[in-house]
Write a structure and sequence with these properties.
This protein has eleven helices and nine strands. The protein is α/β, with parallel strands linked by helices. Helix 7 links the parallel strand 3 (about 160-165) and strand 4 (about 185-190). It is globular. The chain binds thymidine-5'-phosphate.
Length: about 300
């Protein structure tokens, strides 16, 4: 086992878009994870714009999981119009650097309830989403395949924790062959009747700022990671930084934030919540560089 003496000794960390909150603290976290080894580690990651990129090389925005659903041919125009209207109202609130998490949470609950109500009665043949999933393969960050391969090889569980639409997340992961036994998805899944009509979302709604204890407890994933106290966590929104908070047994959490929007306004807030903030980085290089240090 080889611990590191300085963060900058890891070559992938020597880029100007990498911001580190506290180098000494990060160094200690990385060395603890190296010493404990892969048997104590778990990986917790958001999906939208975390496993996937924010934009493609040509500047086109990458579809979110709700966006994938909207692209399905059966989805009626009234749903799309209402979804756009709600996004125009609530997305700026979600990303507002000046509002508190408490204030934002109230608005997110309104958004998710209104969005959920719109879903009811929509006809949704699942195959359509599987087809869209195939179009997402190139949208994954460069290096996600290496991350999934590394975690499979080292028997490290991966939780894909999404406040988006779980059915879309699974469709994209399946299309890329990432939906392996060590990869679990906790998200909002559609309740669909035999006649393909949506009746709502199954269970409790997971929104951007309650992605923590309520959602992970009592899942198959929680059982898999009960003994694993070290976490590498990745997200693209401030709320994602709290994704491991429901696992009290977790000791060291290295939080990696991908920042791709409102960079100047949000950087201080992101640095407050994440150990490492990657600005406009379409890769998993930094995370993979940490994993490669672990036996
Ligand atoms: P996440 O990427 O952090 O898991 O969050 C999911 C995103 O989905 C979040 O930005 C809110 C957004 N969303 C929609 O795009 N459409 C919807 O109908 C709802 C309820 C949420």
């Amino acid at each position: 086992m080889k611990t590191i003496k300085c963060i900058k000794d890891i070559p992938k960390f020597n880029k100007c878009n990498i911001h580190i909150k506290n180098e000494q603290e990060l160094l200690e976290k990385i060395n603890k994870i190296i010493c404990d080894g892969s048997s104590m580690l778990q990986i917790v990651t958001d999906f939208d714009h975390t496993l996937t990129r924010h934009t493609m090389e040509d500047g086109k925005n990458v579809l979110t999981s709700f966006g994938m659903f909207r692209e399905c041919p059966s989805i009626p125009q009234y749903y799309k119009d209402e979804d756009n209207r709600l996004s125009d109202i609530y997305k700026p609130i979600e990303c507002d650097p000046f509002l508190s998490v408490e204030e934002k949470s109230k608005h997110m609950i309104e958004w998710y309830k209104a969005g959920n109500a719109q879903l009811i009665g929509v006809t949704f043949p699942r195959q359509e989403l599987l087809d869209i999933g195939h179009e997402m393969i190139d949208s994954f960050r460069q290096g996600v395949r290496e991350l999934i391969d590394w975690s499979r090889h080292h028997h490290v569980p991966v939780l894909v924790f999404s406040a988006g639409l779980g059915d879309s997340v699974v469709a994209a992961l399946k299309a890329a062959n990432f939906m392996l036994p060590h990869v679990k998805v906790v998200s909002n899944f559609l309740a669909v009747e035999m006649n393909d009509k949506i009746t709502g979302i199954q269970g409790e709604l997971i929104h951007v700022f309650n992605k923590n204890e309520t959602a992970i407890k009592n899942t198959e994933y929680y059982e898999m990671v009960k003994e694993r106290s070290n976490v590498v966590l990745m997200g693209d929104s401030i709320g994602d930084a709290g994704m491991a908070e429901g696992m009290e047994h977790c000791d060291v959490v290295i939080k990696v934030g991908f920042l791709g929007r409102n960079v100047d306004g949000n950087l201080p807030n992101y640095l407050d919540k994440f150990d490492i903030v990657l600005v406009n980085d379409p890769t998993m290089d930094v995370v993979n560089a940490i994993l490669e240090l672990i036996a």
